[in-house]
Amino acid sequence: MKPLNKILLATIIVAMGGIAILAFRDNKKDYRAHNPQKTLFLYELNPSVAVKTNNFPELVRRFAGNNFTELKQMQIAGGLRFTSNDPSEFYEVNEAEGHFSFSKNLGRYMGNYKPSLPEPKSAQEIAKKFLTENKLMAENPGEMQLIHSGGLRSDDENGNVIDKMVTLTYGRVLDGVPVIGRGSKIVVNVGDKGEVVGLTRNWKAFSKRNELKPSEVKAEAEMQREFEAQVIQQFGKGTKPEIKRSYMVYFDNGGKFLQPVMAYETNIRLDKAGEIKEFPYLGIIEAMRTPREKLNLTGVDAVGQRKINGSNPDSKTQSLDKED
Amino acid sequence: MKHVIKKISMVFAVVLLTASTISAGFREIGGYVDKAEDRFVRNVWNFIKNFQSNQNVGSHSWKYTQYYWNKPYFFSGPSHVNYADKMDLVYTAGHGSGYYLETNKSISEGISFSSASPLGDLATNGDLEFLIIESCNTVVPYPDDNNYRNVWKTIFQGLHQLVGFRTLSVSDNGIPNNYAGKLKGNQGIWQAWFDAVNDERYWIFNPTLSDGAPYPGFASAVVYTSTENDRLGSYAGTDPSGKSGMKSWWQY
Questions:
Q1: N or C, fewer C-beta in 10 Å, chain B?
Q2: How many CB atoms lie within 10 A of CB A183?
Q3: What's the average model confidence in pLDDT over B182-202?
Q4: Radius of gyration of the CA atoms of chain B, in A
Q5: Any B CB within 8 A of A263 CB
Q6: Which residues in chain B are closer than 8 Å to A284, comparing Cβ atoms?
Q7: How does residue A217 score in pLDDT terms, banded at 50, 70 and 90?
């Protein structure tokens, strides 16, 4: 063998070895590649929340002011709700889920009314002051992070755009890992002259956290396989998602725990003619091998599925209500 | 003879009372599903399941009476009066784009609202007051098309409010159930929708969606100045139509 060929052969062998090592490492890659903290926890949430059913009426009195006596109280699933003659005004609590929300009477914001709104930076200061003064701030404020500063607008008949409200959304970040789901958020609406006119607080402090062993968490390749199976189950055989990004986050379902999930931001493309050719899809896969709470995010309600399958819109005489 | 007249009067009174109750009280909800992914079944079912029995809200009683795979003829052509326009409120979910809602993915079938039938009490045999569309981009408000009134006026013939998303939207979350609860609490139609969308907002990727909107998207509504305070318990008695008084609300 000529020396040049020997060098070439050696180079090929080294390159192939490198590829094999990389492939092996990739196969062994686990969730830590996507987690800035390199460690994952199971957070147990504290059932004692800021707004309870018994201190709720006191808060309603404070925020509704003179309107309080005109409010009507009603029982709702898991909590209480006060409503008023104004369609925007309500006060609501669900202690088990750590939920408290309200909207003051916004009657004057309808029509072409132009409120005097604070700048977004000032609105943030106003929101934090309000949360602190009313004991509605997150128990550990370091976990709160502004995730969106936006608002509400309308137009009038002359094509003028009217800014009606500033909306600030605070999410939760634990050791650099964001929390998603319906819990772990505080939304504040700031209106005329900096008045806080609405709030949603879905938040529970955590009472303890347990570090998860690597063996308790699925490997990345395993989660991706589950996600691809979910896509086929949802969109049909042959569908290949374009995964744009994936990230290990915590999920707050309003329950008793925050648990890790892998989130996949994807685009689904359809290879066919028609108006809709692609759309976004957010896939969420439970990361723990034995989740403490089943999230059941893609389960179909059996009654809902049976009823739609049994319905025949072409038969005008068939009523779904008569089926059951 | 007096006895007979008394009996007839009583029967007449009962008939009148029953008729006025039906006319003033009972309201129908329709749920229509894009025949595509089963998440659209979840979206619609999680809303209408809250109205399986009569739900008294204010002076009205709401119940769902239709739950079907969606079809273009629910909104267009002579049959639409048996479907969308027979209802008082319709909740529908599917893939969408500006002024468009898909009804069946496998055959690329859908509804173009720029050419759909007029909806509402002012159209012949119509009834629909509130149309809620959970889809991407369908409910186009002013900032996305300053000609939006000229397009939407086609379907607004007594329709009071149209509610949905102006951006991409990610469904399969708590919005439908949360929204139903707020409506049963007699909150305003579009106001409750905007709150339910805000309640789902969270950060994960920045921005979450390719059009710049954060998850789950930005809500929008097309209403009239006379109907923007409508809710399930009571709504404007005079039906609006056309462009006059039409306006839009949107999140950003």
A1: N
A2: 22
A3: 95
A4: 19
A5: yes
A6: none
A7: very high
DSSP A56-125: HHHHHHHHHGGGGGG-EEEEETTEEEEE-SSTT-EEEEEGGGTEEEEE---GGGSTT----PPPHHHHHH
For residue A319, the model assigns a pLDDT of: 39
Across the interface, do B252 and A169 touch by the CB < 8 Å criterion?
A: no
Q: Is B135 on the interface with A (CB under 8 A)?
A: no
Q: Is A310 on the interface with B (CB under 8 A)?
A: no
Residue A269 has pLDDT above 70, yes or no: yes
A73 reaches B (C-beta below 8 A):
no
How far is A19 from A17, CA to CA, in rounded Å? 5
Contact criterion met (CB below 8 Å) for A91 and A84 = no
C-alpha to C-alpha distance for A307 and A75, rounded to whole angstroms: 29
For B33, the closest chain A residue by CA position comes to A308
Which residues of chain A from 99 to 118 reach within 8 Å of chain B, CB to CB? 101, 103, 106-107, 110-111
B153 touches chain A (CB under 8 A): no
**What are the tens digits of pLDDT across the range A174-201?**
988 899 998 999 999 999 999 999 999 9
Show the tokens assigned to B240: 């609006």
ipTM of the modeled complex: 0.89
pLDDT at A14: 58
Mean pLDDT value across residues B27-53? 95
CB of A176 within 8 A of CB of A111? no
